[in-house]
From TrEMBL:
Its EC number is 1.14.17.4. It is an enzyme of class 1 (oxidoreductase). This is Aconitate hydratase mitochondrial. The gene is ACO1_12. One of its GO terms (molecular function) is 1-aminocyclopropane-1-carboxylate oxidase activity. Gene3D superfamilies: B-lactam Antibiotic, Isopenicillin N Synthase, Chain. PROSITE patterns: FE2OG_OXY. Residues 40-140 form the Fe2OG dioxygenase domain. It comes from Stylosanthes scabra. The keyword Transmembrane helix does not apply. Keywords: Iron, Metal-binding, Oxidoreductase, Vitamin C.
Amino acid sequence: MKEFAVKLEILAEQLLDLLSDNLGLEKGYLKKALCGSRGPTFGTKVANYPPCPKPDLVKGLRAHTDAGGIILLLQDDKVSGLQLLKDGKWVDVPPMRHSIVVNLGDQIEVITNGKYKSVEHRVIAQTNGTRMSIASFYNPGSDAVIYPAPSLLEHKAEEEEGGKQEYPKFVFEDYMKLYAALKFQAKEP
């Protein structure tokens, strides 16, 4: 597991560089934005979803967006359950052998000023077997100051009149306190 986690952290940083490049940001911009004074945090969570005889009576893992940066999910290769919200409809993410599902969290949405969105997702209960998943989270350091990349605000100003900043500046730890208090409510406010 330690070796797996180290490789996933490297993959997360490579993906952050690709996202930075795609946005026209300097290499390493997103990683640096997530650092804070002590560097980013990285953790892995293993989840087990047992079969449920009456899935219509159970909510499973509630609909939510992830609060952090970038999430890499190794999901079960046989039992489904992960869904994402697309155009107002829940869409199944099929189990895929040897695949990693990449999810962007709220902090990437803020830093990109909404160019990339955090994805609302959930896990629904299944009757056809136990579902396992391994989620690895590359998150900001607790004291990281999160705000939209200035160059993306400039680009937006060129594309539209006003090019406004859609998101406030905040410290990640403060965001997490608010997230924990309001996690069952809509994120937009």
